[in-house]
């Protein structure tokens, strides 16, 4: 029985990249089996309740998947989303995630996460699922991400927002019309409009 659980646990991690303790329990794999695998260094625990294989390739996007596992209702946004969409040279020291305005804020030591709060339409519109390490991770799309960066410019800096806008238009990852639609809802079009007009004019 123990050998079977060990084999199944390792096979699950090979297939899915990372799992929470409750995911293993749902597969009838006991916590003691995981504890043994950790002690034997066949499995590592990068954060409380999160398990992965020791030879898993670590890259920037992988941290987004880890954060998404630990905060299932969170949305990758702002600089982390810009970096994922290759719209900035910034390498954020923490994963930027949005949670619902009234949601409890998780206490997570790794990966480092910076939380912002969204509500209403902001929790769903322009949020798309991207496959990272065999997991679907909710991330704001390029246009929505750029608008959010202008909306939270006091947190991340206007220069970062402008860089995202410039790269988004230059690489055709968003259109002025898409930006306008999200910006009107976010009530930042008045702020964004002169920057959008300048970038579009320069790209013409």
Overall description:
The structure is a single chain. The chain is of the alpha+beta class and 204 residues long. The protein has 2 domains: 51 residues, no CATH class; 144 residues, no CATH class. Helices cover 50% and strands 18% of the residues. It contains 10 helices and 8 strands. The strands form 3 sheets. Strands 1-3-2 form a 3-stranded antiparallel beta sheet, with helices on both faces. A 3-stranded mixed beta sheet has the order 4-5-6. Strand 7 and strand 8 form a beta hairpin. The termini are far apart. The relative contact order is 0.11.
Which secondary structure elements does this structure contain, and how are they paired or packed?
Blueprint lengths: L1 H15 L1 E3 H6 L4 H9 L4 E4 L2 E3 L7 H11 L4 E2 L1 H7 L10 E6 L12 E6 L8 E6 L2 E6 L1 H10 L1 H4 L1 H13 L5 H11 L2 H15 L1
Parallel strand pairs: 5-6
Antiparallel strand pairs: 1-3, 2-3, 4-5, 7-8
DSSP E strands, number? 8
Q: Residue share in helices?
A: 40-55%
Mean pLDDT: 89
The portion of residues forming beta strands comes to 15-25%
Point out poorly predicted stretches: none
Tell me the series of helices and strands, N- to C-terminal.
Answer: HEHHEEHEHEEEEHHHHH
What Rg do the Cα atoms give? 20 Å
> Which word captures the global form?
elongated
What's the arrangement of strands in the largest beta sheet?
1-3-2
How far the N terminus sits from the C terminus, by CA atoms, comes to 66 Å
Number of domains: 2
Protein structure class: alpha+beta
Biggest sheet details: 3 strands, antiparallel
Q: What is the number of helical segments per DSSP (H or I, 4+ residues)?
A: 10
């Amino acid at each position: 029985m123990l050998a079977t659980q060990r084999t199944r646990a390792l096979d699950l991690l090979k297939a899915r990249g990372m799992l929470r303790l409750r995911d293993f329990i749902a597969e009838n794999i006991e916590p003691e089996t995981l504890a043994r695998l950790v002690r034997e260094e066949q499995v590592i625990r990068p954060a409380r309740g999160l398990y992965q294989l020791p030879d898993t390739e670590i890259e920037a996007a992988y941290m987004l998947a880890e954060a998404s596992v630990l905060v299932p209702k969170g949305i990758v946004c702002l600089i982390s989303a810009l970096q994922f969409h290759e719209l900035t040279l910034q390498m954020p020291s923490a994963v930027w995630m949005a949670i619902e305005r009234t949601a409890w804020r998780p206490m997570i030591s790794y990966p480092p996460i910076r939380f912002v709060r969204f509500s209403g339409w902001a929790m769903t519109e322009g949020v798309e699922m991207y496959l990272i390490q065999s997991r679907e991770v909710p991330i704001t799309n390029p246009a929505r991400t750029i608008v959010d960066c202008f909306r939270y410019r006091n947190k991340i800096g206007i220069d970062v927002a402008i860089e995202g806008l410039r790269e988004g238009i230059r690489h055709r990852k968003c259109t002025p019309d898409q930006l306008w639609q999200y910006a009107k809802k976010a009530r930042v079009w008045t702020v964004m409009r002169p920057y959008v007009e300048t970038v579009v004019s320069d790209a013409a």
